[in-house]
Amino acid sequence: MRMNVLPGILRNLTLVVLVGCSQPLLAFEVFSPLPHNAPEPADNPQTPARIALGKQLYSDTRLSVNNTISCNTCHDVNRAGADGRVRSVGALGKSPRRSTPTVLNAAFQSVQFRDGRAASLEAAVTDHLFDLDVLANPDEAGLIERITASKGYRRQFTRAFGKEQPVTAHNIAKAVAAYVRTLITPESAFDRYLKGDKKALSENARRGFEEFQKIGCSACHFGINISGPPVPMGEGFYELFPNYPGSEYDRKYNLVTDDLGRYEATKEDIHKRLFQVPTLRNIALTAPYFHTGSVPTLDEAVRVMAKTQLQQDLTDKQVKYLAAFLNSLSGTLPD
Fold first, then answer.
1. Are the CB atoms for 83 and 73 separated by under 8 Å?
2. CB-neighbour burial class of residue 45 (10 A; exposed 0-12, middle 13-18, buried 19+)
3. Scanning 82, 165, 265, 284, which has the fewest C-beta atoms within 10 Å of its C-beta?
4. CB of 271 within 8 A of CB of 60?
């Protein structure tokens, strides 16, 4: 593991770690408007055929072992890319141990999942296809049999991937990932503000942005996705949670559990209780909060973060302003 110190913006941070970052950080502005297009990997270009196929697969319950749930069941595009539950329920009735994060703007995250175990969107889709707590396919054979039973799918896969073994789990993951890269929410009030429209933010949101920087939230939450610096894809940006254990919120919201975050993926002691810094875009639309899914409202999540991460007790006015700013991060939702 290599630790990198960013000038200025991170000077007040107790602990921020770029785990496994072997390359220098890319040049970036502290805050930047969200682009309308996400970066795409060289081995999975954003072709219309792949995107259309991925969109169809995303909502198809045949991706699950028993035809009961789809990707959209837990990452509902009509619910800001999440499902509003404390924990989702998988195809076999089991629940993953962590609350479901939004899939919106996930294409701008350098790793996927709260423990960063997936280095790409393609890897994340593959993980869920065979995770027994999610889509629960025990192997590739049954999945491929269900998809190839459709003549329409056979044609679509050939169109998207060519005639040589087009229907594979790998290509299913590629297609779904291509669609997810279109789930971007640009033109939030904050984006318009960053582009020069100083009236885009309300007075309360503007004060909230000032508080956001003043009390130290921006030590972790900055950059294009309000989730940290632009590290290379496959390398993660993590924070310790809770950074200051022992507050009343630990017990109230069960924040300290046997979930050790990044350690679950690497088994390296130095990674215990490190979690990927999540995007704050559309955060006002994706309650409940944190990997435990235990905090029900945005105002309360603001108080919890200030206490557990920055050792600060906020006034009601500070919470009001910060919540107004966070609401300004909601962009134009996908059609």
1. yes
2. exposed
3. 165
4. no
Would you mind telling me the total number of residues written for the chain in this entry?
Answer: 335
Residue 315's domain comprises 16-34+185-327
- What kind and span of H or E run contains 251? helix 248-252
Pair 176, 72 in one domain = yes
CA 90 to chain centre: 19
Tell me the three-class secondary structure of 86-151, residue by residue: CCCCCCCCCCCCCCCCCCCCHHHCCCECCCCCECCHHHHHHHHHHCCCCCCCCCHHHHHHHHHCCH
Structure confidence by residue, pLDDT tens digits, 87-104: 999 999 999 999 999 999
Distance CA 89, CA 188 (A): 31
pTM: 0.91
Residue at which a domain ends, from 140, 155, 180 = 180
Strand intervals (E) in 176-276: 238-240, 274-276
241 shares its domain with 285: yes
User: HSE (CB half, 13 Å, CA atoms) of 212?
Assistant: 25
Residue 19: pLDDT band with limits 50, 70, 90: low
| Domain final residue pick, 180, 204, 238 | 180
Q: How many CB atoms lie within 10 A of CB 79?
A: 16
Single-letter residue type at 40:
E
CATH label of the domain that carries residue 60: 1.10.760.10
Cis peptide before 230 (omega within 30 of 0): no
Which tokens in the block code for residue 257?
């559990």
Looking at the structure, do residues 193 and 319 belong to the same domain, yes or no? Answer: yes
Strands (E), the chain: 16-17, 238-240, 274-276
Q: Is the pLDDT of residue 217 over 70?
A: yes
Number of domains within the chain: 2
- Residue 34 neighbours by CB distance under 10 Å: 23
